[in-house]
Each structure stands twice: as C-alpha cells, then as structure tokens.
Amino acid sequence: MTSVKRLTLIAAAFAAAFGTNSVSAGNDAGADYEITVTGLWTADRFPLEYPKAGVLTGPHFSGVIGASHNGEFMLFQTGAQPSPGLERLSEEGKHSPLDSEIKAAIVGGKAGALFESDPIKDFGKTATSKVHVTSAFPEVSAVAMIAPSPDWFAGVEGVSLMEGGAFVAEKTVDLYAYDSGGDAGTTYGADDQDTKPKQQTMAASARHFGGKPVARITFRKL
Questions:
Q1: CA dist 158 → 73, 103, 139 (Å)
Q2: Are 63 and 193 in contact (CB under 8 A)?
Q3: Residue 216: phi, psi to the nearest 5?
Q4: Which of 31, 90, 174, 175 could disulfide-link 167, Cβ–Cβ 3.0 to 4.6 Å?
C-alpha cells in the first residue's frame, strides 16, 4: 500500500469516528457584521475648550481599529498600563503597532479578526467597516483617538454579539472617553508630557467630557 493511500484511509477513519460537524474556530461559519461609528463629540454637546476647526488640527477621530475576540484578549483595560499600540493610537492616532498586537492575538488564538475604518473628520458623517465573528470569538472591541488631545480615546471593550446561543441581529453601544495613561496633559492642546512610568488606563476624568458618550457604534448582522 502506498503512503498516499495509507494517509487517505487514516483520514477517512478519523472522519468516521469523530464526524465533521464539530464547532471550532476553524469551521464555525459565524456571522458578518457591518460596523457604523457615529461621532457625538461636537461643539454643542462638549463646549468646554472645544478645539477650533482646521484642516489638519481640527476636531476629529482617528480611524477606528478593533477586533473580534474571546475573553482572553483585551484591546484596552481600565486599571492596567496601556500597551505600546494603545498608547500610540491615543497620542498619535496611528494604528501601528496596535494592529500588530491584534494580529499576534489572532495567531495566539485569542482574537478572530482585525477591522479598521477611515477617520471621522466630519461629525455629520459616519465611519463604516466590517467584522467577522464566530462562537469562538463572539466579542468585539474598538478604539479611536480623540484628536487633538494628549492621550484621550473613544473606546468600547468586550461587546458580545452572541446572546442565548445566537448572533444578535443588531446592537448599538455608546463609546466613552478614556485616558490611556501615556501622557500627563489635561487640555486638548497640551504640550507632550510623557508619563514615566506609564499610568493606568482609566475613564477620562477631564471635565471636558462630563461623563457623556463621545460616539456610538452599531453592529448590524449582514
């Protein structure tokens, strides 16, 4: 018997013994979602020292970046120091190296898919993207820099798109302002003041936000 035939017979025996319908990260069909982010950070809702309009320096959100994942992965965590990727995202609006951190989590079996969007420069418009979720990776987290700012970002962590064993048709969640802990500035236009050591990521205590949501994210099943 040739080695090819032997391998074929072994594969057939394995399939007969264990079946081919088990759910795993590899064969779970999951669901695709359209993501829509609506900015609520406007001058009328947040008038305190609201940044002046400008082509490059005017108020905007960086592109949104996030991931589908399981409970072992956290894009950000209150009470913990920021990862290098989160710190750079919050201070410069750059997706790198946060995108590499997400890709490493995917390889490590903690995340399922990375998603990104364009920046929101006009708060009368929205930013959209798509993400694939599975029963193995049913949660979604997302962040975007609030710009200009020292290290403030809009974020949401661990939104589950699976309820009662089924994927939800639609879910809308508010995003609040956070301080990544990488910079000590307290105003939108503060000079760069890196914290050493890094502080903990916390809900933004700056009086500019008043505990109100700065954005809204909607997940719609396709």
A1: 9, 17, 5
A2: no
A3: -140, 135
A4: 31
Q: Exposed/middle/buried for 162, CB within 10 Å: 0-12, 13-18, 19+?
A: middle
Tokens of 49: 């020292």
DSSP 8-state code for residue 142: E
The pLDDT-based confidence of 55 (bands split at 50, 70, 90) is confident
Q: State the total domains in the chain.
A: 1
Residue at 50 is within a domain: yes
Percent above pLDDT 70 for the chain:
88
Residue 120 has pLDDT above 80, yes or no: yes
Q: With beta carbons less than 8 A apart as the criterion, state whether 85 and 101 touch.
A: yes
| In contact, 31 and 140? CB cutoff 8 Å | no
Mean pLDDT over residues 91-119, rounded? Answer: 98
Any idea what the CATH number is for the domain that residue 33 is in?
2.60.40.2130
- Residue 198 sits in which domain range? 28-221
2-10 long-range CB contacts below 8 Å, 24 or more apart? Answer: none
